[in-house]
Amino acid sequence: MTSQANPKNKEILPGLQLETVDDKIMTLNVGPQHPGSGHMRIILKIDGDYIVHCDPDPGYVHRGEEKMAEYRNYITNIPHLERPVIHDSCNILYPYCLGVEELLGLEVPERAKYLRVIASELNRCVYTQYWLAIYGIFLGHSTMFMWPMGDRELVIDLLEKMTGARVTHSYFVPGGVRNDTPPNFEDVCLRQVNYFEKRLKEYADIFYDNPILISRTKDTGILSREDAIKLGTTGSVLRASGVDFDIRKKEPYDVYEELDFQTNVLKEGDSYARSKIPWLDMFESCRIIRDALQKMPKSGSVRIKLKPNPKGGDTEVYRRVESGRGSLGMHIVSRGKPQPYRLKISVGSFRNLIAMPHLLTGEMLGNMPAVYWSLNYWPVEADR
Amino acid sequence: MGTASGIIKALNSGIKHIATKRFTFRYPEQKLKFVGDGYQYDPDSGVGIAGYKGRHILFHDKCTGCQLCAIACEDIAEAIAMVKVPEQWKHNKKAIMPQIDYGKCVFCGLCVDACPFYALYMTNDYELSSFTKEALIYTPAQLQVKPKVDQDVEIQIDEKGANHG
């Protein structure tokens, strides 16, 4: 992200500026090593306790996922594409699989569609619990670090039974899912999801209704509805500013239109509202899982057999899904080869990061973690 | 809600957990229970069988040395190399079998999906750490061994809460 041009700065060479030092303003680097900033650097200019300028500097964990995808075929792309966000690995593979299915003209079996929805909602819970734990420890609430990390185990256990791995499941493939559920999975899933929901309700007393948390997050980093739309934010940030936008509702994919759930919208647009939306979304995820388990066909195929090295035509597709951090889209360009010609990943994290300088300018330094992490930003995903 | 009552409520919700049984389990002494014998794949139907994706198991009497697992892994982790084996099999003229480097393997299981002869499966064995990098390279003879995995605890849910038994 380019820093704002300071009129005092002299341009000594084209594009190279000499920064003038102000006696009153101090430059503070948060990160990139500090775990609190999460593999990125935030360059803050502070006047006393107030932030006068904020310049987020992502890119420290850039892995070249998009370029790597051009050298691998549609199946071997799967394991490396889920690396940007391993907690949410089903959701990041979702748009890829939907796109490749459109390219190759595959029809996914009905049971596989439901299994995908269940896996993707469980993954959303895993991601959100992890995010919530970090948010708790950012605000000095160590119980809120332990509880979500512990309860996350309930969901990880389900995903492990279903997919065979605790994280990085490699579960979705173009044409369905890798394997069917183990016997007796529905009962175990229902029991653990019900208990998980019961535990989520307990977070209200200790965290969301806690006066200490409210005083730290309420009315900090307010993002108005107009600014949220103008800056192009997505997901929980957008919904916390009063915009009812959820891709699962607006552009339903797979079987989301048949499932019963609602989107959570809050009007305040402050850090508190932004931190509450993902928590409320987890209740909806539990509702979706219960509904999907009920409506799912009890038997049937879950995967179409593909030819080795399938080839797409001379077309382009763009598919997007609602991930834990907002809209997650993939644009696949095919030129008749087994490998994609170009794969563009558009992630919610990076879109939400754009709002950060806007929110932090004028804020107190102590509020920086509360505002920063409420943006639902995952550095590794933003860098791809 | 007043500030004082809110703080008391928050403290109370934490204090309740002092009396309940811990949710976590003591790992090296206790080990988690898995479903099945590990991830397997049925090449006829083209669908996998749910199970944990741990260390592989190789059936020497079925492996034909076709290298499809190594080709599948080529673009993913390059963990599989085909090596000569001393045994002579009728169905394996070249006498080559996969050798897996667990320093590179990402446990995605796509090599299992690639095997058309039911020769390569995954098992529940996840304790693969070693002192040297060389010890992470499993030869076909090591991959043949069926692992012994202790499985004692799983999540149990009752009215008081959840624990690992």
Automatic annotation (TrEMBL), chain A:
One of its GO terms (molecular function) is quinone binding. Pfam families: Complex1_49kDa. This is NADH-quinone oxidoreductase subunit D. SUPFAM superfamilies: HydB/Nqo4-like (SSF56762). Its EC number is 1.6.5.11. InterPro entries: NADH_Q_OxRdtase_suD (IPR001135), NADH_UbQ_OxRdtase_49kDa_CS (IPR014029), NDH1_su_D/H (IPR022885), NiFe-Hase_large (IPR029014). It comes from the Archaea. Residues 139-304, 314-384 form the NADH-quinone oxidoreductase subunit D domain. PANTHER family: NADH DEHYDROGENASE [UBIQUINONE] IRON-SULFUR PROTEIN 2, MITOCHONDRIAL, NADH-UBIQUINONE OXIDOREDUCTASE 49 KDA SUBUNIT. Keywords: NAD, Oxidoreductase, Translocase, Transport. The keyword Nucleus does not apply. Belongs to the complex I 49 kDa subunit family. Gene3D superfamilies: Cytochrome-c3 Hydrogenase, chain B.
UniProtKB/TrEMBL annotation, chain B:
Residues 54-85, 96-125 form the 4Fe-4S ferredoxin-type domain. One of its GO terms (cellular component) is membrane. GO terms for biological process: aerobic respiration. Keywords: 4Fe-4S, Iron, Iron-sulfur, Metal-binding, Repeat. InterPro entries: 4Fe4S_Fe-S-bd (IPR017896), 4Fe4S_Fe_S_CS (IPR017900), NADH_quinone_OxRdtase_chainI (IPR010226). Pfam families: Fer4_7. The keyword 4Fe-4S applies. GO terms for molecular function: 4 iron, 4 sulfur cluster binding; metal ion binding; NADH dehydrogenase activity. This is NADH-quinone oxidoreductase subunit I. The lineage of its organism: Archaea, Nitrososphaerota, Marine Group I.
